[in-house]
Design goal:
The chain has helices at about 225-235, 295-300, and strands at about 5-10, 15-20, 25-30, 35-45, 55-60, 65, 85, 90-95, 100-105, 110-120, 125-130, 135, 145-150, 155-165, 170-175, 185, 190-195, 205-210, 215-220, 220-225, 245-255, 255-265, 270-280, 285-295. The chain is about 5% helix and about 50% strand. By secondary structure, the protein is mainly beta. A hairpin with a 6-residue loop joins strand 17 and strand 18 (about 205-210). The strands form 7 sheets. The chain has a 6-stranded mixed sheet with strand order 20-19-24-23-22-21. It has 3 domains: about 5-65, no CATH class; about 85-200, TolB, C-terminal domain (Neuraminidase); about 215-300, Nuclear Transport Factor 2, Chain: A. The protein is globular and about 65 Å long.
């Protein structure tokens, strides 16, 4: 119907959607019974923040719109600050100057935080010393993009994904104290992000964008390829429209990698727990997968599994 990265249907008979052409929110009338658009779109809001694929906006059933605007360079208006949050939900500032901070990771000893800072031309990796209250750059690319930083288990080095001059992409690592040069670890054909280290620091788990299809089983049901798994996910979550999934634990035991995860939806009072296991082949891609999860919350939502 139209090019969009995210859309919401409202009880008023309209669709609110994000337009890639101008980073804007648009609205258009929609006939639900006939499943067709009515009239043309109108621009509702210009410049909506979309940091990593998902535009930041929400619309209530009554039509109230909430969104995060952008400022020059694509950052969120007003920037971001880093905060500590204790188990009671109390926040304490780590950074006092707002900026476009992303992907913060705490060092193994808890004294430092590594993060990416974005601007109009790209992003660099910085290290925040939580004891001395300093922010020091680790990379210095004027026009490159460096992000997804990850500490090694011993805290001595930081791995990160980088796209540099000439569109060269790689996973690099560099000494956390800033000495020496960044050294390439992996030279992938596709965007590949460092995700987690094994406890001994000898194995690095990475996430590849648009990974190849793989065979699997979900609660004992055979899934021939990744597209079939994605189709099953759409069926499971079609009624849970505000869910989010969080990884609780990662265990790397080559050639297997396992995740425990939970999925929550505040709107639907929904919560489900599960485990995913991936088998990695000799080319470091997923060859087979298994998923197990509690089906009771899905049945309570009236879903047929």
């Amino acid at each position: 119907m139209f090019e969009t990265g995210d859309a919401r249907y409202l009880p008023t008979g309209h669709i609110v959607y994000y337009s890639f052409s101008g980073d804007d929110l648009c609205g258009i009338a929609f006939d639900l019974s006939a499943i067709r658009l009515k009239g043309g779109p109108i621009t509702m809001v210009e410049g909506v923040y979309r940091p990593s694929g998902a535009p930041h906006f929400a619309v209530s059933d009554s039509g109230t719109l909430a969104y995060i605007p952008v400022i020059q360079g694509g950052a969120a208006a007003g920037g971001r600050t880093l905060v500590w949050v204790d188990r009671k939900g109390k926040e304490g500032l780590i950074t006092y100057t707002p900026d476009d901070y992303r992907f913060p990771r705490i060092s193994p000893d808890g004294t430092q935080a590594v993060l990416a800072v974005w601007n109009a031309t790209g992003s660099n990796i910085w290290i925040r010393n939580l004891i001395r209250d300093t922010l020091i750059p680790l990379t210095f690319d004027a026009a490159g993009s460096n992000y997804y930083p990850l500490w090694t288990p011993d805290g001595e080095r930081i791995a990160f994904y980088s796209v540099r001059e000439g569109s060269n992409r790689a996973v690099y690592w560099k000494a956390a104290d800033g000495t020496g040069k960044a050294e390439p670890l992996v030279l992938p054909d596709k965007p590949t992000f460092p995700w987690s280290w094994s406890g001994d620091g000898k194995t690095l788990l990475m996430m590849e964008w648009n990974a190849l299809s793989s065979e699997g089983w979900v609660n004992g049901k055979h899934i021939p390829d990744r597209s079939a798994k994605n189709k099953l996910n759409r069926v499971l979550f079609e009624l849970v429209d505000d869910y989010h999934r969080a990884i609780e634990n990662i265990v790397i035991d080559p050639p297997f990698v396992s995740f425990t995860w939970h999925t929550k939806s505040t709107k639907h009072n929904f919560e489900a727990h599960g485990c995913s296991i991936f088998e990695i082949d000799e080319t470091a891609l997923i060859s087979r997968l298994w998923m197990y999860f509690d089906t009771a919350p899905f049945r309570a939502m009236g879903m047929q599994l």
